[in-house]
Amino acid sequence: MLERVFKLAENRTTVRTEVIAGLTTFLTMAYIIFVNPDILSKAGMPRDAVFVATCLAAAIGTALMAFLANYPIALAPGMGLNAYFAFGVVLGMKISWQVALGCVFLSGLIFLLISVLPIREWIVNAIPRSLKMAIAAGIGLFLALIALKEAGIVVAHPATLVGHGKLTSLPVLLAAAGFVLIIALDHYKTPGAIIIGILAISAVSWMLPASGAKFAGVMSMPPSVAPVFLQMDIAGALGIGLVTVVFTFLLVDMFDNSGTLIGLVHRAGMLSKDGTVPRLDRALVADSSAAAIGAAIGTSTTTSYIESASGINAGGRTGLTALVVAILFLLALFFAPLAGSIPPFATAPALLYVACLMTKALVDVDWEDITESAPAVVTALAMPFTFSIAEGIGFGFIVYAAIKIATGRILDLHPAVGIIAVLFAIRFAL
Asked: How far, in Å, are 78, 88, 102, 234, 405 from residue 231 at the CA level?
């Protein structure tokens, strides 16, 4: 049955290799079951219910990728998008988390629609590479600011806007130690470096009463998902003022997925001879469906994970790898007490580590062309400084269009980019 469904022989792999690859991928990305509830709980969502929603959304999305596209790629609530959901939309715009879930659901449906139409390729190909890279790096800088805030390293300051906290406090020292540990483990190619770092710092904090962290156990029956299940407010999300929010979720998810899929398929040596991604339409259908389903279950945008590269490096070549990851996420449902015991300063190092990985996208900006690099810098810096991914994207598109027109290079400006820039300008003006 496995041979018939996943075509193992055709992809020159075995069940044993796929299982090992699936375990490797899961260990690399399992940190999300601790980090996502922590972030979304800041938006007022019930932490235990979000934990269940995270595991279910990851399991369902990854299973869809396994059976629809037969790719060794796992999905889970995306880093960056969950931060935008909590800090940018709910806390920043004073919108209820139910309405925010409605925005995620609508963005997933729109993504699904354009994934089966030529619109997706038109939009993705229209956005200049410099802006795509800047968006990825900007989200990384946004995550870095949140990580430093959660660790207590960066605090609000009435005169300078931001300043440093008490650097000798126990949470700050533990967060710093966690970051160094994760980097060291990653340097030595240790599988599960992030989750090891989170659990190690948590264990130390549980033994130190001064940290304020408390251990609540390891395993139990899964909590109820009812407090967040089908709680999305679609009617509220259809409000004219939330078009930008839906568009931002859609845009980031679309760019993130296209880049992630291409990169992972290339690493697996599965690109077609003409450089195209086989079964890309099926993979995008799986991904967009997962985003909508995840919102219905009760979590922010579910997306493909670049951490799947670890499983690919371990030999994963088919959807069986993804199926193993999906099963492991279901088993993780029974570790709710452990997830609830993880203090914020233990997950902050993981956020900062992910931020470091995302920020390296700036390397691919064309720094020799100031009309490309300047909008990229504005885009990346605007996200953390305005504390909004949407604002950063908007500023980037407007600046890009304005610079191309001012320098007489209007032919470099794709109509889609110009339209998006005008829409953002109208939104800011109103």
From this structure: 20, 20, 8, 9, 45
